[in-house]
């Protein structure tokens, strides 16, 4: 019976799916889009990705396995130096991209999947043949900026209204965690009747299993036994200073012999076009210098997938420092590589990390983080025990609601 049902499913024509994404870089959102697109392609769907910016040299390697098209990169990303007006520019770029795809690109598709910017959704309502629209909400954009002046509040008011109104126009709305689902309901008052489905991001485990970890001699000084790893974009909201402050606290907790065997690698997405990336990288380097941590910290910007997997394979634990992270793909990657995670006890990590089983959930202060790190140094076998539990957590059926392409399309039928 099961074989017959599978055969019948194979006979059903697979949908043609178009992904629309603002900027195909190296963040968690891009990781999700690529993994979802690859999974759908593997199941026989005709998949294409359209984006306003794509640089193969600054993107995940798997993007080369998909047809990626770009339009509208000539439009500005901001209004003047300092990134002012980024939200308006992002809306304009995505609306232009949607118009280009619909009226100039001669694309044929059944379903469009868009994320981050919902302003493009009304454009697809203009199609002659009705398109099904899925919107993946990583987090409400209106909560990602401060309103510290009257002009800023005035500027954001129409943008916030557009975001809420156009999000409600999607046929199906997905969010990345129960945390984001609760924030969605609380934030979008006019959409209180909508219960977004939670669809956790997952991993393309094939890409992890196919890589042979390489030696880290060029990144880690000799004699280092306890390798700590931080993976996050060079943005202030990621609270990367917490990892450095925890390292300072750890220095006072260890013997000089153990301390000399500790090393932290700060690996993160870095884009020279983004002013905050440039500024924050310099801020972190200055902090290392002032704290006399120069020989205990290595900075790695825009690393390759092979480097990331090699680091996860070799490190003692991962330090995941952002508070109220919407979901966080890094803990999943770490746990799959049997690497425990020390994370802040808020947001998405509460759903992906089992405290004292696959890692530790701590208050966002350097003392608590250093105490958790010390446990791995005092009890080296803890890494292996938690690592096995973490791998089991991430494997199929371990994290309920993980990315399954079929889930999305049953919601659109």
UniProtKB/TrEMBL annotation:
Keywords: Endoplasmic reticulum, Glycosyltransferase, Membrane, Transferase, Transmembrane, Transmembrane helix. Pathway: Protein modification; protein glycosylation. Residues 218-391 form the Glycosyl transferase family domain. It is an enzyme of class 2 (transferase). GO terms for cellular component: endoplasmic reticulum membrane. One of its GO terms (molecular function) is GDP-Man:Man(1)GlcNAc(2)-PP-Dol alpha-1,3-mannosyltransferase activity. Residues 26-189 form the Glycosyltransferase subfamily 4-like N-terminal domain. It is a single-pass membrane protein. It is found in: Endoplasmic reticulum membrane. It holds the Pfam family Glyco_transf_4. The keyword DNA-binding does not apply. Its EC number is 2.4.1.132, 2.4.1.257. It comes from the Eukaryota. Its main location: endoplasmic reticulum. It catalyses: an alpha-D-Man-(1->6)-beta-D-Man-(1->4)-beta-D-GlcNAc-(1->4)-alpha-D-GlcNAc-diphospho-di-trans,poly-cis-dolichol + GDP-alpha-D-mannose = an alpha-D-Man-(1->3)-[alpha-D-Man-(1->6)]-beta-D-Man-(1->4)-beta-D-GlcNAc-(1->4)-alpha-D-GlcNAc-diphospho-di-trans,poly-cis-dolichol + GDP + H(+); a beta-D-Man-(1->4)-beta-D-GlcNAc-(1->4)-alpha-D-GlcNAc-diphospho-di-trans,poly-cis-dolichol + GDP-alpha-D-mannose = an alpha-D-Man-(1->3)-beta-D-Man-(1->4)-beta-D-GlcNAc-(1->4)-alpha-D-GlcNAc-diphospho-di-trans,poly-cis-dolichol + GDP + H(+); an alpha-D-Man-(1->3)-beta-D-Man-(1->4)-beta-D-GlcNAc-(1->4)-alpha-D-GlcNAc-diphospho-di-trans,poly-cis-dolichol + GDP-alpha-D-mannose = an alpha-D-Man-(1->3)-[alpha-D-Man-(1->6)]-beta-D-Man-(1->4)-beta-D-GlcNAc-(1->4)-alpha-D-GlcNAc-diphospho-di-trans,poly-cis-dolichol + GDP + H(+); a beta-D-Man-(1->4)-beta-D-GlcNAc-(1->4)-alpha-D-GlcNAc-diphospho-di-trans,poly-cis-dolichol + GDP-alpha-D-mannose = an alpha-D-Man-(1->6)-beta-D-Man-(1->4)-beta-D-GlcNAc-(1->4)-alpha-D-GlcNAc-diphospho-di-trans,poly-cis-dolichol + GDP + H(+). Mannosylates Man(2)GlcNAc(2)-dolichol diphosphate and Man(1)GlcNAc(2)-dolichol diphosphate to form Man(3)GlcNAc(2)-dolichol diphosphate. Belongs to the glycosyltransferase group 1 family. Glycosyltransferase 4 subfamily. This is Alpha-1,3/1,6-mannosyltransferase ALG2. It comes from Macaca mulatta. The gene is ALG2.
